[in-house]
Amino acid sequence: MAGRGAERHPHGADRLCEAGDRVYSRAVRRGRVPRTDAEPVPCLLELALLHPDPDDMDWLVPTSPQEVMTRLLRGVYDEVSESQRRVGSAVAAFEWYADLGRQLNTLASGEGSAIRVLDGLSRIQAAMDEATAACTTEVLTVQPGGIRREAELTEGLHRALALRGRGVRMRDLYTHVARHGQGLLNYLELMGDTVEARTLDEVIDRLILFDRTVAFIPANADRTMALELRHPALVEYLVTVFERLWRLAIPLTAPLPDTGIEGISHREQSIAALLAEGHQDAVIAERLGISVRTCRAHIARLSETLGAASRTQLGVRIAQVGLDGHRPSLPATALTGRDREPPTAR
C-alpha cells in the first residue's frame, strides 16, 4: 500500500501534490493531524514533513516550515551546478513555507525540536551518525542485556573509531553478565584507553549521550523507534542518572566482590535480592541480562545452598541471611554451613 502511494507522489518537498498540500497545511494550522489522514499521502512522511507525535503515536505533527526551508536550501546549494531550475523551484517553495510559518507560532518557538521521534532504523542511524560527527568531548552509554552480540558491536564500530580518532572519551555501562562476552573484550582491547567500561547487576534501558547536549533513548520495545532529546533539563537529568550508576558500578578490569556467604555467587546474590522484591523469573532474567533457563538454574542452586524446600521457604531463608539487603537475622553459616538443617526438616 505504501509503495503504491509513493509511486503516485513522485515529487520533492519543493513541489507538494494537491493532496499533500492540503494535509500538511491542515497539520500546520491545527498543530497535528491523525495518522490516518496521511495514509493517502505517504509523501509527507517520506519527506519528513510530518512525524509521529512523541505524546501519542497515533497523531502526526508537522515539521517546522523554517526547518523545511533550511533543508531545501541546503539541498539546492549542493545541486546548483547541475540545475538552475531547481534553484527557482526552491525559492518558490521557500516563499510558500514562509507563509505557512507565520501560522505556526507555537512550533516556531523552537520547543518542537527539543524532542524528535526517529521512526525507522535508517533515520536512527542517520541521527546517530550526525551526533557522532558533531561530538568533540565525551560519549556516555548504557548497554542493557547480557553478552553483546558481535553484530551489535560491529554496528557502531565505525562511530566509535571516528570518535577515538578525534580524542573523544567514552564511558560505557554494562551488566555483569557482559563480562563473559569475548566480543566485548575484543572491542575494548581495540579501543584502548579511549573507552572505560564498568558493570552493574542491572542497568536502565539503552541510553547514549553526546557531549551532554543530545541523548538517544528507545521509543518502543523492539527499538525500531527512538527519541532524540535536546531539551537541556531532560539531558541533564539523564546525565545525573548515568553518573550515579557509574559511581555504583565496578570497573571491568576489577573482579566482582565476594558475597561473603559461602557457596553463593555474586549473580545468585542479585537474583536473591530481586526474588525478595517479588519479581517473577522472566522479569529477573531480563533485568540481569540472562536467559530464563539460566535464571531458574541459579534459583535452584540458591535453594539448595540455603536448604529451602519451596519457593516460600527460599524467601524466608533469603531474609534470614540478609540477601534481601537487610541485616541477617541468623548467621550465614547457620544456613549455608555443613551443619545446616536438612531441606525436608520442619
From TrEMBL:
InterPro entries for this protein: Sig_transdc_resp-reg_C-effctor (IPR016032), TrmB-like (IPR051797), Tscrpt_reg_LuxR_C (IPR000792), WH-like_DNA-bd_sf (IPR036388)
Protein name (Swiss-Prot/TrEMBL):
Helix-turn-helix transcriptional regulator
Organism of origin is Streptomyces capoamus
Query: What domain of life does the native source organism fall in?
Result: Bacteria
PROSITE patterns per record: HTH_LUXR_2
Q: Where is the HTH luxR-type domain?
A: 257-322
A single BP term in Gene Ontology: regulation of DNA-templated transcription
Which GO terms of the molecular function aspect are on file? Answer: DNA binding
Q: Which PANTHER family match?
A: HTH-TYPE TRANSCRIPTIONAL REGULATOR TRMBL2
